[in-house]
Write a structure and sequence with these properties.
The protein is α/β, with parallel strands linked by helices. It contains 33 helices and 11 strands. The structure holds guanosine-5'-diphosphate.
């Protein structure tokens, strides 16, 4: 027997537990992508509904109503208005929160007007008893002309009943639960006559929104003299909303009873502390501090393991594969390349673990509210806090996290400044440079100067982000009105399943997004470093042996000499040398030049490249560590150390400011849909970095 597939759309206000219902239905059978052409996330999954029935579930972006005010909301409307869309639902599952029924039902009544079979999910049923809420389900079903599933996606109750209702969607009533044309009977009458084959409420939505659907284009309506002035339409929209709320109030009066004495609870008291003008910030920054401490403390163990694992793998393969180009490619290009991606997984996973716990618990909304006051002054939104913090793991998921900022201008500014925050790719660079040039001393008894420097670099990252936001806020022409919808959901214990899925998804996004590029670069760098154009590269051994003549020399030293000569004449050596005049004033030699050139693709390549530069071809394994090699580097002309205080600081600042990450540029391009903004990041940030490093070196040398 053929398998029947039911198309299901999950719809609902933000924070009603829509994602939790989606996770309950689909488990890990979900794919996340984008809607074509725009940057709104599209989640789809499958659910088994019976022997021969399955469902494809689309989790539509959270929306308050069908009156679009953000890109996310337009997605919902455009799908629901277009019966020819391949995703058009057989059944709409509208998720509401039992504690916010009044507000949540507005959207439901609108969807009923579209005459789509709809199931009403009343979620968070587990909270009813504590809140003193009871519902008269048969009455509500009759008034709202629907079937209701009382669900707790936390406890997993009611999900089977929901599935049952979905399977039987054909028996759902499709008539509206209130009469939309009463908004303006004359006008609706005229509409009905002009477009007899169209659904009235659809027409109304197309007229009031900036959307098209199916065979009905806006232009067609506009041509047909049905236009009303913008203010008149706004007035009618308001009238519609009031009518809907009147209806909902009436229904709930009989369908729901709330014991208000019981409903009074901790929430108000918690809110008072957590959004307090002083304590609010103190608590928030303490939590941040705690998170950072744990990210670094907990990640270091798995990171070290990964590091050791990959270097073991590399030497194991090099010993056990036949010598040749392929083996070199695998052991010096591919394995370290994959290692360079995998090593970031612990930090990214921990960061998103914390962020998603804060979000799930309802605390993040308080932070957004708290920070909005401050962030607005810099042209940012309270919601920019999340991307700016996420940026400390990686700018890629951070920029993706700007999607829930409704205001385009604030979103753009957030995207542009996020790369300034100290991402984890800068960490290895900072770590090695600090160890090299900053003394390992204590000040004031317990502050370690190296640790302090690292903290200052993090603060520098945030400060540059905020200051550049302020400048962009002055410079950018686009003016958008800003609404701030303070959504304050109830405090809740985070659902482990939701947290786990967020962590897995964000980590996947990093591995597949940035990972591909980092791996590719490692291979390219390996190739450029182990191949050269001229005779010098090919005959390095000959040339060096001739040069030495009969002098006795340790064979290891000889190999090093050959390798160094070869590297100098490899493609990458030639590139590094050719930019030397430009970077000399910053205190760098051509070897650092090579590392800088290669890390324009990804910063973390810096350390790897230096390792390669100092190790390629030398073969011997009892080699001093990179750090000691770097420490020993001297300028052949002056005999001075290459990595000294002045050049080290200049390099640190260069890495703090320069836009050296192809993946971030790619994500910015994707999220802003234009090359203008990523190019501005690339040139603006890098030029600034050059200038700062130049000044630093010239002052300190
Ligand atoms: P969405 O924004 O609508 O996708 O909502 P989420 O699925 O992210 O849930 C919002 C919050 O409600 C999270 O903190 C969830 O843990 C919580 N939540 C979801 N379902 C339930 C439920 O059935 N009972 C309770 N008590 N909390 C829930």
């Amino acid at each position: 027997m053929a398998v029947q597939t039911i198309k299901i759309s999950l719809i609902g206000n933000p924070n009603t537990g829509k994602t939790s219902v989606f996770n309950q239905l689909t488990g890990l059978n979900q794919q996340v992508g984008n809607y074509p052409g725009i940057t709104v996330e599209r989640k789809q999954g499958t659910v088994r509904l019976g022997e021969n029935t399955k469902g494809t579930v689309i989790d539509l972006p959270g929306t308050y109503s069908l009156n679009a005010s953000s890109m996310d909301e337009s997605v919902v409307i455009e799908l629901l208005l277009n019966r020819n869309d391949k995703d058009f639902p057989d059944v709409a599952v509208v998720v509401t929160d039992v504690e916010n029924l009044k507000r949540n039902l507005l959207l439901f009544t609108q969807i009923k007007d579209l005459e789509i079979p709809a199931i009403l999910v009343i979620n968070m049923a587990d909270r009813m008893q504590r809140k003193g809420i009871s519902l008269n389900i048969p009455y509500l079903e009759e008034q709202l002309k629907t079937k209701i599933a009382l669900v707790s996606s936390r406890k997993g109750t009611g999900i089977n009943e929901l599935k049952e209702l979905i399977v039987n969607y054909k028996y759902l009533p499709t008539e509206p639960c209130l009469n939309a044309s009463s908004i303006d009977p004359d006008y609706f009458d005229k509409l009905r006559q002009a477009f007899p084959n169209q659904l009235l409420y659809k027409l109304w939505l197309v007229i009031t929104q900036d959307v098209n659907f199916g065979q009905l284009e806006r232009n067609e309506i506009e041509k047909s003299s049905f236009t009303k002035s913008k203010t008149e339409l706004k007035r009618l929209q308001q009238k519609e909303t009031i009518k809907r709320y009147q209806f909902i109030n009436n229904v709930l009066k009989q369908g729901q009873t709330v014991d208000t004495a019981m409903a009074k609870d901790l929430r108000a008291r918690l809110d008072r502390v957590l959004t307090h003008k002083v304590f609010g910030y103190v608590i928030f920054f303490s939590i941040l501090l705690l998170i950072f401490q744990s990210i670094f403390a907990w990640s270091s163990v798995p990171m070290d393991l990964i590091d050791e694992g990959f270097s073991w793998l590399s030497s194991y393969t090099s010993k056990n594969m036949p010598p040749g180009k392929l083996t070199e490619l695998v052991t010096e290009g591919i394995i370290p390349g994959i290692g360079g991606v995998v090593i970031f997984i612990p930090q990214i996973a921990f960061l998103f673990l914390f962020i998603s716990i804060l979000e799930e618990s309802g605390y993040m909304s308080r932070v957004v509210f708290l920070m909005d006051r401050i962030m607005k002054r810099f042209g940012l939104s309270g919601k920019s806090v999340v991307p700016l913090i996420s940026g400390t793991a990686c700018a890629i998921p951070a920029i993706m996290a700007t999607r829930n900022i409704e205001n385009w201008r604030e979103r753009l500014i957030t995207i542009l400044v996020t790369p300034f925050t100290t991402c984890s790719a800068r960490l290895p660079v900072y770590a090695i440079l600090i160890a090299l040039v900053i003394p390992n001393r204590m000040v004031l008894g317990f502050f370690n100067v190296q640790g302090l420097t690292l903290m200052l670099l993090y603060m520098l990252g945030f400060a540059s982000a905020i200051i550049s936001a302020m400048i962009l806020n002055k410079v950018l022409k686009t003016r958008y009105k800003s609404f701030f919808v303070a959504e304050m959901p109830n405090y809740k214990l985070p659902l482990a399943k939701n947290v786990a899925i967020t962590v897995i998804e964000k980590t996947k996004a990093f591995v597949y997004g940035a990972g591909k590029i980092i791996l590719a670069i490692s291979i390219v760098i390996w190739f450029l470093g182990s191949h050269g154009p001229g005779e010098e590269f090919k005959n390095a051994e000959q040339i060096i042996t001739n040069e030495i003549g009969n002098t006795q020399i340790d064979p290891d030293k000889l190999n090093d000499k050959i390798a160094a000569y070869q590297l100098e004449h490899s493609y990458i050596g030639i590139m590094g040398k050719s930019i030397e005049p430009a970077i000399k004033p910053l205190g760098y030699d051509w070897k650092i030049g090579i590392a800088i050139v290669s890390s324009f693709a990804a910063r973390e390549v810096f350390v790897g490249t230096l390792a390669t530069i100092y190790n390629i071809g030398s073969g011997s394994e009892d080699e001093a560590t990179i750090k000691e090699r770097m420490k020993a580097e001297t300028d052949p002309e002056t005999g001075k150390k290459i990595f000294n205080f002045a050049s080290g600081l200049s390099l640190l600042l260069f890495y703090a400011f320069a836009m050296q990450c192809m993946s971030t540029l790619a994500v910015t391009k994707k999220e802003t849909n234009s090359w203008k903004w990523p190019l501005m990041q690339l040139f603006g940030m890098s030029a600034f970095a050059y200038l700062v490093s130049l000044i630093t070196y010239q002052l300190l040398k």
